[in-house]
Amino acid sequence: MSMLHEAVAGDQDGFRFNFMSDEGVTPASAQPAQPSGEAVAVEVNAGGRVSRGSIDLDEVSVHPELTLLKRRLTSEDAAELLGESEITGNDLIPGKYEGGFKLWECAVDLASFLSKEWQIGMRLGPGPMKGPSMGQTLSGKRVLELGCGHGLPGIVALINGAEVHFQDFNSQVLEGVTAPNIEANLASLPGEVQQACGSPRYFAGDWEGVGRLVTKQRTGATYDLVLSSETLYNLESQEVLLSCLTQALCPPHGEAYLASKKFYFGVGGGTAAFRKLVRRQGIFECKTVANVDDGKSNKREILRLSFPQSIAGFF
Predict the structure, then answer these.
(1) 308 lies in which domain range?
(2) I need a surface site. Which of 4, 105, 231, 254 has the fewest CB within 10 A?
(3) Number of folded domains in the chain?
(4) Is residue 15 part of a domain?
(5) Among 282, 281, 299, which residue's Cα sits nearest to residue 290?
């Protein structure tokens, strides 16, 4: 099944969402979406670029029995890593930077949801371990996290045994936060648990390019699960994201989990608009599997995209 839709995100000025700062003790969560420009994506060797002892780490509680680690960054740190002073004061600069150095709240929502779904119970980081108590294993499964930023949802899949491919628009994000976060969390696990973890790969570039890359490498339509957080804020980029999902997911069992705010005021996106797009495309079924309303931010949802059961007999 291969219905591919080509789209290019529109230009915007650099702007801020003003949800939460990454400079506090308790960060927010996951990451925005797709830039305009040439559709290019490449696999990068992001691991081992940053020494764990040279960075500060924060604990992020994603579940009562699961605490993850993430690199602490100021906006000045992010500007230095990217080599782009303009990102100081901007969450997004389309075509240059797509917000990956910040931890956006929907990523924590998704990591929490997945850890509960997969019955993962452990505490990573300083202090005694709780567990580990592993429920459903993802051993042998292939997972793609789109717009990964800090990569917390993908890390949950990784420690549960999946091979996880992490994609971000900026290679500097993959090298500066995604890979260090993965390495810090895996290093916090007992040796026998580390051995059961999956392996990561890293891809930099936009979603249209990623769709073409996985097709070219013949890894397209082979992902059992695709994860993405805070990536539905822009109406035009939603089309590119949906096209990438169509290219990446393996029918008939492949699924995607998307964590997003219901509405992005002043920007135009959100889960309602994405549902309409999915219905119009006609390939996936879309269901809300979780609602988050903590009174601190916009109401949020987690959507699950899956193929209709009616196609199972064709595969």
Answers:
(1) 41-314
(2) 4
(3) 1
(4) no
(5) 299
Residue 266 one-letter amino acid = G
Question: CA–CA distance from 101 to each of 27, 78, 90, 147 (Å)?
Answer: 12, 6, 11, 11
pLDDT of residue 136: 56
198-220 pLDDT, tens digit each: 999 999 999 988 888 877 766 55
Are 31 and 100 in contact by the 8 Å Cβ rule? The answer is: yes
User: Is residue 245 in a domain?
Assistant: yes
Q: Is residue 213 assigned to a domain? A: yes
- CATH code where residue 105 lies: 3.40.50.150
Rounded to 5°, angle at Cα 181 from 159 and 59:
90
Task: Flag whether 24 is in a domain.
Answer: no
- Token pair 């090298």 is found at 175
Query: By the 8 A CB rule, do 230 and 259 touch?
Result: yes
pLDDT given at position 87: 67
Does the predicted model carry a pTM greater than 0.90?
A: no
pLDDT digits (tens, 9 = 90+) for 257-315: 999 999 988 778 999 999 999 999 999 999 999 999 988 888 999 999 999 999 888 88
